[in-house]
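Objective 1b. Sequence-to-structure analysis of Homoserine O-acetyltransferase.
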Amino acid sequence: MPVTIPSALPARRILEGENVFVMTQGRAGHQDIRPLHIAIVNLMPTKMATETQLLRLLGNTPLQLEITLIRMASHDPRNTAQAHMDAFYITFDEARERKFDGLIVTGAPIETLPFEAVDYWPELCTVLDWSRDHVFSTMHVCWGAQAGLYHHYGIEKFPLAEKMFGVFPHRVLDPRNRVLSGFDEIFPAPHSRHTETRAADIEATEGLELLAVSEEAGVYLAASTDGRQLYVTGHPEYERDTLKLEYDRDISRGLDATVPRHYYPGDDPSQPPMVTWRSHAYLLYANWLNYCVYQGTPYDLGAIGPQITPTADED
């Protein structure tokens, strides 16, 4: 079944060219189906690229999805045209009275800043609080995962001596967890970050379960025990050349950039990179939509109730 998006969204042409099933809002309105309502808080600077990456993964399930793109009113994006933001995004204030089956909070290239130094941090905290009783299940990605773990549980992030950059093997810790249904025992996923969340902190936190880790990259996947919050510290949505473009950008700026590990054949950046993580990326999003969202969310969106996950300042 398709993912429903505005007919003029640039991602539509790209996805249709890849045979991803997308449907315009006009056509979807004639179908007698209750779609899942999924909101995306897109914090990435390259918003159009991130839209395409996420919609590609969301569109690979039997479920019909209606997508709402949300922006931070307290931050003006510098890398996306204002006309695009005005045409396809709404502010959180415009969304706060609505309820959603699912929410995705993306990463952002600001993880070296203290959370409180981010200009939209107060607004994002309001969104995270709002999500606990207006969203059935939330997926937090990369910096969004660090932000969610810090806000909801008080779990800190720590600087790394060297950027975690590349595609790393990960080990499944709980194969019985539905989010990992169908996963291989060892699976690859991309990372690109300067900070880390420590496994011991997650394991010591009531209400959280550590689901997948890497010997090299550390924590990859954690979830609340009720499945209503999922934390992904990597970037499963990345395309073939995303890490390459980031590496090439840093080299062009004269930075002492590290070659992304396990990404190029033989770790040789003169070779074209190989995609090894795509199937598990699709599976992660499909499992989240099916088991964490669709199987539990009420038919009447208004019946979505508060999550019981404790916040950092609760006993």
